[in-house]
């Protein structure tokens, strides 16, 4: 899909492609800008030959131009998170050693010192956009296209590598399943370092010649205001966003509520994903908007695998059935398929599944069994649809649409000078999916308050990884083998929920 974007964009030429706070940009403008970025990155060479290029830009024109430019130069696009503090950015850059690091001028202060410390080539996106276009390489579909970092059971994030063919398969599947056309117009409020925003929204829209309107950040009042102006056909978000939109609607006047609800009814499709959607939230949104949110299931390694139907009944609590071109099965611990109605681990196979974890051959091998990717999620098939029951590791949490490793958070928290031990758990929460909570054992005589702890953690962890609650314990509960009993901790936090 990524290398096909240029060919597709040429068909749409002067049509609007993206609308951002910077302005409205046509497909022709994106083609010209990305050609300049590609030539700048090549620097006289003929091909980047699948070298990673990291970039940091706000959602908007620079982001898309740089992403396309990396692809057109033969590199691997590696979008960085706007929300990650220096230690997390440093880890990713050190893990990949990219050929270049590109930053929007507004974010140069974040990446330039880090690039210098790691002795990486650094440039501003404005420099790249001003470069003269030149001859670009021909890129074949089986080459690596993108690296997105995702948390794993071993603690530190792993780089998920997808090829151009993987991305093409992911987008083609969604375009077919969700009825995308060039007449669509979608509003994106999702981060663009995550598969949800990159593939499901931005790439699908640009693949078919639709318009993607981009807000740099989510604000419920802004989103409702955009809904009221009309013209949108699709909206996709995580459950947390829908909860906040519902809250804003409920605080509005009766007259405004009616206008807001009518604006929603003018759209053809609204989707929820990246975390479990509470049935109560689905019902509230249905009453407000007239839409039964389309729930789907996917992850960084596979794109989307399951989806409720565009047409037909959508079952609350279900993530639907396999998408076009995707094979799904449920298996027991030995890898044997389970009977219908019996819980099993979701395994996925097909062209949408990623190629490898960056520089982690052992982790890649462990992630597959007989060609099937092991998701680690447990589900049950009922009447042809799948219902997610949970994850097979208590150490993987989903909060606000992000997959988070409890082990990674614990590693960071243990570096606090006053904390001797810690254990992190996810507690079910109607807004966040999993509420990140930390049980702490302090060093003798030491104390810590929630706000000061969160401020300390905020300098080392992404916002969604920072524990929202802490409990100070004299010791962590353990089983007979000495392993921390996380179920006991979860019960404690649930019992003492404020």
TrEMBL record:
The UniProt record lists the AMP-dependent synthetase/ligase domain at 6-358
A GO MF label: medium-chain fatty acid-CoA ligase activity
Q: Which GO terms describe its biological process?
A: fatty acid metabolic process
Enumerate the Pfam families for this protein.
AMP-binding, AMP-binding_C
Asked if the record carries the keyword Hydrolase, the reply is no
User: SUPFAM superfamilies, alphabetically?
Assistant: Acetyl-CoA synthetase-like
Instruction: Determine if Ligase is one of this entry's keywords.
Output: yes
Q: Which InterPro entries match?
A: AMP-bd_C (IPR025110), AMP-bd_C_sf (IPR045851), AMP-binding_CS (IPR020845), AMP-dep_synth/lig_dom (IPR000873), ANL_N_sf (IPR042099)
Keywords tagged on the record: Ligase
Domain AMP-binding enzyme C-terminal: start-end pairs: 408-483
Q: Which family does it belong to?
A: Belongs to the ATP-dependent AMP-binding enzyme family.
Q: What is this protein called?
A: AMP-dependent synthetase and ligase
Q: Which organism is it from?
A: Syntrophobacter fumaroxidans (strain DSM 10017 / MPOB)
Q: What is the lineage of its organism?
A: Bacteria, Pseudomonadati, Thermodesulfobacteriota, Syntrophobacteria, Syntrophobacterales
């Amino acid at each position: 899909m990524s290398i096909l974007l240029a060919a597709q964009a040429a068909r749409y030429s002067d049509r609007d492609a993206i609308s951002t706070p910077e302005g409205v940009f046509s497909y022709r403008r994106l083609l010209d800008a990305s050609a300049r970025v590609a030539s700048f990155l090549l620097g006289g060479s003929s091909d980047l030959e699948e070298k990673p290029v990291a970039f940091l830009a706000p959602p908007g024109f620079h982001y898309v131009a740089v992403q396309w430019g990396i692809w057109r130069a033969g590199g691997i696009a590696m979008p960085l998170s706007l929300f990650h503090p220096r230690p997390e950015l440093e880890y990713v850059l050190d893990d990949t050693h990219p050929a270049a690091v590109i930053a929007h001028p507004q974010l140069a202060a974040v990446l330039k010192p880090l690039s210098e410390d790691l002795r990486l080539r650094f440039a501003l996106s404005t420099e790249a956009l001003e470069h003269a276009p030149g001859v670009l390489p021909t890129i074949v579909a089986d080459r690596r296209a993108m690296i997105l970092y995702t948390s794993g059971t071993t603690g530190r994030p792993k780089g998920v590598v997808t090829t151009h063919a993987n991305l093409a398969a992911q987008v083609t599947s969604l375009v077919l399943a969700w009825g995308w056309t060039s007449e669509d117009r979608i509003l994106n409020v999702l981060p663009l370092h995550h598969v949800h925003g990159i593939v499901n929204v931005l790439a699908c829209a640009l693949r078919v010649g639709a318009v993607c309107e981009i807000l740099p950040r989510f604000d419920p009042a802004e989103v409702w205001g955009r809904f009221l102006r009309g013209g949108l056909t699709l909206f996709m978000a995580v459950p947390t966003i829908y909860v906040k939109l519902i809250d804003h609607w409920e605080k509005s006047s009766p007259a405004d509520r009616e206008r807001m609800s009518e604006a929603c009814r003018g759209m053809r499709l609204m989707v929820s994903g990246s975390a479990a959607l509470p049935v109560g939230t689905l019902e509230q949104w249905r009453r407000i908007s007239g839409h039964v949110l389309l729930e789907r299931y996917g992850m960084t390694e596979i794109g989307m695998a399951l989806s409720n139907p565009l047409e037909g009944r959508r079952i609350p609590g279900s993530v639907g059935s396999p998408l076009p071109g995707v094979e799904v099965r449920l298996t027991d611990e030995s890898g044997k398929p389970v009977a219908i109605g019996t819980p099993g681990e979701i395994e996925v196979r097909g062209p949408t599944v990623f190629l490898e974890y960056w520089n982690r051959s052992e982790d890649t091998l462990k992630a597959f069994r007989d060609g099937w990717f092991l998701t680690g999620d447990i589900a049950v098939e009922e009447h042809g649809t799948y219902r997610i029951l949970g994850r097979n590791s208590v150490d993987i949490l989903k909060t606000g649409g992000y997959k988070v490793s409890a082990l990674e958070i614990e590693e960071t928290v243990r570096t606090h000078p006053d904390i001797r031990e810690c254990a992190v758990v996810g507690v079910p929460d109607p807004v966040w999916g999993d509420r990140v909570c930390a049980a702490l054992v302090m060093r003798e005589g030491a104390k810590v308050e929630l706000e000061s702890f969160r401020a300390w953690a905020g300098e080392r962890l992404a916002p969604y990884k920072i524990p929202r609650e802490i409990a100070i314990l004299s010791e962590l509960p353990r089983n007979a083998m000495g392993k921390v009993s996380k179920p006991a901790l979860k019960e404690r936090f649930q019992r003492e929920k404020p």
